[in-house]
Amino acid sequence: GQDRSRDGYLMRFRSLMIYIKTDAEVELLREANQLVSKTLAEVAVHIRPGVTTRQLDAIAEEFIHAHGALPAFKGYAGFPNTLCTSVNDEVVHGIPSDYALREGDIISVDCGVILNGWYGDSAFTFPVGEVKPEIMRLLTSTRSSLEDGVKQAIAGNRVGDISHAVQVRAESAGYSVVRTLVGHGIGKHLHEGPEVPNFGRRGSGTRLDKNLVICIEPMINMGTKNTRTDSDGWTVRTGDGKPSAHFEYAVAVRDGKPDLLSTFEYIEKVLTKR
Ligand code: MG
Ligand code: MG
User: Fold this and answer.
1) Whole-angstrom distance, CA of residue 104 vs CA of residue 121
2) CA of 12 to the centre of ligand 1 (A)
3) Which of 140, 214, 210, 148 lies closest to 174, judged by CA?
4) What is the pTM of this model?
């Protein structure tokens, strides 16, 4: 998620430019985002009680390098690792560590790559072993809110149509939408314009033009929408310690229907084999 408060003014100005891609550029972005999807599936293979988030990070970094790409987050604004690993009440931007996952945890794994100069960015929240039904429901609803948002990513709509669709699905399930972090355009920069909030009014905001590529990434909390940032300057957590879920796709805006550049199919294959 793009942090709306962190970026300096000039960086923000530059990074929030909107770039409409050519068809060929959309295909390059598809390659980068497919690699992210495959990296998340490789990480999924290793998610179980006892594995440390640092081990998952190493697996992702090696996989990305082996496929001729670079980890996009490592060094981005000083972020130290390849993955953001955010456990339980951590919303996003968790730093991989020696924390060993426990049965019943959930972990958002957010991954970015640079392939041939183009960025990929996607996230998935995994259950670790057996997870309480109420927490599984949070994961399912967050993913559904993403799918609802994606359906609005068609030429002629506005950003607010996506935002509204995500918000309605999440809030009607009884959850709250994080306000301080948003989705974003993506291309030769990790974060481009427009910002894609997960809340808003239908018909408002930037018009979605054909071949705009955006990351839609609902961050949905079981309790309060409020968040706080740890003293490490990165880890965002819920204000009340209740769990949070995060799913992210990159999608190209097209005429009539959205074109997903990311997929969770590789992850699903891993999860259903268990
Ligand atoms: Mg993102
Ligand atoms: Mg991401």
Assistant:
1) 26
2) 15
3) 140
4) 0.95
